[in-house]
Design goal:
The structure is a homotetramer. Chain A is an alpha+beta fold. Chain A contains eleven helices and nine strands. In chain A, helix 9 runs antiparallel to helix 10. Chain A is globular and about 80 Å long. Chains in contact: A-B, A-C, A-D, B-C, B-D, C-D.
Amino acid sequence: MDLGLNESFAPMLAEVRRMVQDEIASLDAEYFAEVDIGDRWSLTPRQSEILESLKSRAREKGLWNLWYTGAGGPGLSTVDYAYFAEEMGQAHLAPETFNCNAPDTGNMEVFHKYGSEAMKTAWLTPLMAGEIRSAYLMTEPDVASSDATNIALSCTRDGGDYVLNGEKWWATGAGDPRCAVYIVMVRTGGDDVPKHQRHSMIVVPTDAPGIEKLRAMEVYGDDEAPHGHMHIRFTDVRVPAENMLLGEGRGFEIAQGRLGPGRIHHCMRAIGMAERALRLMCERSLQREAFGKPLAQLGGNFDYIADARMQIEQARLLCLKAAWMMDQGDARAAAPWISQIKVEAPRIALEITDQAVQMFGAMGISQDTPLARQWAHLRTLRLADGPDAVHRRQVARAELRKYTNAPA
Amino acid sequence: MDLGLNESFAPMLAEVRRMVQDEIASLDAEYFAEVDIGDRWSLTPRQSEILESLKSRAREKGLWNLWYTGAGGPGLSTVDYAYFAEEMGQAHLAPETFNCNAPDTGNMEVFHKYGSEAMKTAWLTPLMAGEIRSAYLMTEPDVASSDATNIALSCTRDGGDYVLNGEKWWATGAGDPRCAVYIVMVRTGGDDVPKHQRHSMIVVPTDAPGIEKLRAMEVYGDDEAPHGHMHIRFTDVRVPAENMLLGEGRGFEIAQGRLGPGRIHHCMRAIGMAERALRLMCERSLQREAFGKPLAQLGGNFDYIADARMQIEQARLLCLKAAWMMDQGDARAAAPWISQIKVEAPRIALEITDQAVQMFGAMGISQDTPLARQWAHLRTLRLADGPDAVHRRQVARAELRKYTNAPA
Amino acid sequence: MDLGLNESFAPMLAEVRRMVQDEIASLDAEYFAEVDIGDRWSLTPRQSEILESLKSRAREKGLWNLWYTGAGGPGLSTVDYAYFAEEMGQAHLAPETFNCNAPDTGNMEVFHKYGSEAMKTAWLTPLMAGEIRSAYLMTEPDVASSDATNIALSCTRDGGDYVLNGEKWWATGAGDPRCAVYIVMVRTGGDDVPKHQRHSMIVVPTDAPGIEKLRAMEVYGDDEAPHGHMHIRFTDVRVPAENMLLGEGRGFEIAQGRLGPGRIHHCMRAIGMAERALRLMCERSLQREAFGKPLAQLGGNFDYIADARMQIEQARLLCLKAAWMMDQGDARAAAPWISQIKVEAPRIALEITDQAVQMFGAMGISQDTPLARQWAHLRTLRLADGPDAVHRRQVARAELRKYTNAPA
Amino acid sequence: MDLGLNESFAPMLAEVRRMVQDEIASLDAEYFAEVDIGDRWSLTPRQSEILESLKSRAREKGLWNLWYTGAGGPGLSTVDYAYFAEEMGQAHLAPETFNCNAPDTGNMEVFHKYGSEAMKTAWLTPLMAGEIRSAYLMTEPDVASSDATNIALSCTRDGGDYVLNGEKWWATGAGDPRCAVYIVMVRTGGDDVPKHQRHSMIVVPTDAPGIEKLRAMEVYGDDEAPHGHMHIRFTDVRVPAENMLLGEGRGFEIAQGRLGPGRIHHCMRAIGMAERALRLMCERSLQREAFGKPLAQLGGNFDYIADARMQIEQARLLCLKAAWMMDQGDARAAAPWISQIKVEAPRIALEITDQAVQMFGAMGISQDTPLARQWAHLRTLRLADGPDAVHRRQVARAELRKYTNAPA
């Protein structure tokens, strides 16, 4: 069970770390400041310039599509990628710089595994090139999407087309003007169809008539423009039947294939965020004085620092173990490990970030450190791709199955 | 130790509750929507209309300046007021409706206790009438203000004037166009003066030349316009010597007198927010279904609800006890109790609010419930008026003093 | 809502505190040392002497049956008694000294409320006089007694007698040679009888033929001789029909009436134990030095002390509120409050005791402080009279009932 | 970073697991029952027979001194040994069965690394053969031994001898009649000697005149006879000068060399105990019913099970990482990792054990499961070989050193 980085990737990792810390992190603030200029939902020339120049530099260095563990990719295992993703978690623009950002990575995965040749040409190629963006539409406002069998957006066959009606929200990235395609979870089967075969995944171009972006969902008051988490209405949206992925009723099969890697990538980045928070906490605790001493030496601050270090090491190892399980190729066996880290990584990253906020005093909750924004982002991870409760349930059931043949 | 509401105020409390729930809460969303119209730092006509009509109605009903426990006020004890403040915590606009909002209440308290007749005429009277707003400038960006002896904004005598130079931030309410006056903590004494006599409080009209609002501090991305938490620079700001409160070197004395009630009012409202979060959590858990059951019956949700109820009851009782201690008239004896509730009320309210967010799923972090905004506000309370660490330190020292005469 | 002590009892309380601290606490160690002499399940002459002399002194001072809120008692309300019970929690022998020890108080309550005149003469009078001891037999080894409808000890009518067969365990106090009577929860009704009417309470003299004490249950290795928590087998144990309390099928009614006061008394004492732990922790932290400083000034110790103080104050107030609810006379309304404190008091007392253990280092887990024994005793309270899970369930259901008429 | 077991040891591990579960665990209860027969501080014939027959079988199978990573041992790395130690944690008699029990392993380590040839012949050979037992005397009643520079037992040169005077306590294993030798930390240097060179380690045969076993320290009421944690007085105890290990003033050097492996072995076993607790918890939750359902499906029990699994996985990985660091050969670099797991392994094992106790109800605190005993043992680990606070301090200091050259 080798959880270390393949030695041959060490120089590449060092270069990613250097770029993130020296080139990318410092551009985050400028990028965010541009959001307030003009229409929040377009990219300013400067925003485009920032993104494209970073992407060019990354591509030139061969630091591109690092997430792609398939043939023709850079050759990282999931374990290897964990080390890279952790670095990318430390600056807002870093994942996109290396074409490793959610939800595009997950969507590319779907096209790779389940897409037709036509889809690959139309969507996968430009996505892999970083030329377009995409979104993944799963969650709906009217049902508890934590139980995905509730998903209800209607998709009915009409001649050579499918017609979609209903609403989705939290369509992350759908605000971006470059977003060209949606992968949409829809309901195709009636109540007579077995529960896990009622749903399908279908590909919808974002310019199809009948699509209406109702609003951006806010995350603790932030609309996250221009990326955005959009609330979208479909009214008689029509797409050709060949846009259906794999075939009717195979939505859950695809969702499982897509969500595993996506979940673990989030966790890897969350651990990078936890490291950043701990670093900021330590620096602050050494520089700031109160009552005649550096904060580090006051009260329980040693304990907070020690606990943060211990939590990070454990969560990182668990994340690497889950990645290693995925690399073994048995998705079913890896599933409870992904559920475990999906609960633990956001939990510890949130706690450490919150502790860092407290060490900074009022500055911690403000725009003057990346901590407040990081916290809000991490908070979404306790809900996205399955809330904690659902993952805990998976872990418990897997545990109890060891002792019984009956379903727990 | 009667911690109940004086019976005679029961009808008044019922009317406040009714107004908050039926008239005020529903206007919060409209008020916030107006912030995005035109200049964020002015009030739109509709915003003014909302506020002034609510205030008129409150004043007509005699529900005005309820916080004021002095002569000529409505006659509530601090214990009584706790019950009212808790209700006001349940809608954003409620405290101002009843002229009970921070930081004005604390500033009025200062003018009442320490102000000259001229100050009372100029500032206290219009504040009590709800005609102007005020701010309290304590925290500074360059020093650890948790140890208030670090405060450094320079204030030097020049003939009949004082001249102020330096920066303050987190001047809550200073963004409001109606804000007419600041009470400012300044440093007047040199290193030769005893540590707790180096500081003073001085009154500064907001239109004094040399005052520059640099920016609004953001709270988890929200600038909280038009109220705002402003970062302000003073450059040779000149005020007459009689604007000094009590006299040079008495800043800490005034701060203590001001902060006690202010802290406990925040806590009382925080308990109201915790109640709101629990109510929303319960309603959601009964209405929403997953896996064929209402959420209430899934996993540990009963435990979360039970723990929330137990935490609220205990924190409320502690808050009432601290209020009762204040009503006994011995501020020194009451101080550790205020520190206790200052730690506990935000802690439990944050935890319960976060749990409610989780029960709502992605909706919980969005603009569709008051929970995300409430969480961000509550988070500031772990820092405002002294961070947790300072209050815990006070409580521990008070405890250890029981066993030793030497300073702990 | 007066949660204070009735002033007139202040001198009495002071005397109880003095006796506990000055006279009783110091005898605990001697009493325990005597347990190892001869038969663990008898009292040595010195043990009897210690107990009887303490009891005499208490009775002489009128400090007797303080728990008894009924007519002819000392006249304390439940709120008043909370202050006394807290003091008694601070020495092992204190509750019995004042004839306020479990399970006798609960059993006396049962005889008072539900006993026939014959029972009162036979059992209540000597119990009130401290001449005999009693036990309460509820829990059974073979069923989950947390759901008391599972209780199964068979009790069948045979002419003028009832005949009992089955096993009980955790019969607290049944090891004591002075224990003369059991109150036993039995099953009298078949499956055709409604669930909460199948059980009854019956009075059984401890010398009835067919009673066998199988063994003493150990609490973290301690058999708690000579008091003991006994595992008892009933084989054709025969008692006259008039020993049935109230009548067949009324077992739950009696259990409710008995358990309310019993639960809250445990909690009141637990708060006293928490205070003792905090006191020991503070003293230790001031006396012991490491790394050149008293422990109090190292690491997070200030925080532990502050948190302990804050937890105790809140739990005490909750306990007083629950007591006050009982004093209002509506047992049904008081029930969720008792569940709340039943969860919270042991929880905080355990946590503070454990923290105190840690402050003492290895000495803390040993026989050289009362902390280890106290911890083990407190740990039983998370199970006795209903485990945490059952009480949390009660609190959650009471909360949800506010929002629905349907059963939650 | 390979954290897996070396494949070649897989059959050996399987055999250890089988022996522990099938042969050893079932003898624990019988062994403990024998303690109450006759003198608690001798071994009954049956106790000797149990131990010696288990040891013979282990030795025959080559499952002997598995801990010994040096030349001539079975060849396990520290990482490999972790897997074995975890299995041994699941039965009380298992570590001794395989001659892998504390404190003998640590003492053998000392003789191996620092002992003279004479010492090796006299003590190491019979210890490696399992013929004698040993104790390690560090902690003292009168000083805070968490700061080991406080250690004060006097050891002065007198001709060819050293003479020892003072007291030690918590001498684990010193109650065993087979215990033949002590390794004792003593103070040899005066205040003029640098702080970390004042102490020495010396070898003392247990039959030296002047040694007095004052009493057994109890762990939550258990004297742990016949192994015991003894309180020992030295009065003019005289040993030849060549019994000094390495030379005067090198006590800390030896302590460091000894404690690293010892600490991690405890942690490995603690993880085994956590696994045992989780297994018992799961089995109970499936077998026991209340309110018409197996406990597993009630309240938050799924969450407790899931959290336990997640905590165990993370702690195990951290333990393996610390072991791997030790295997890299840089003790200084490994030290903070050992401190980390020294805090985390007992913490999670205690929490899970306590949760399992709660799942069992009153049975959980009794002698009818191994949980209560296991909890008490685990509780000692938060103090033994350095309390949590000292290890957290080490971790925090290591962290802060990354940001500063000045000592934190």
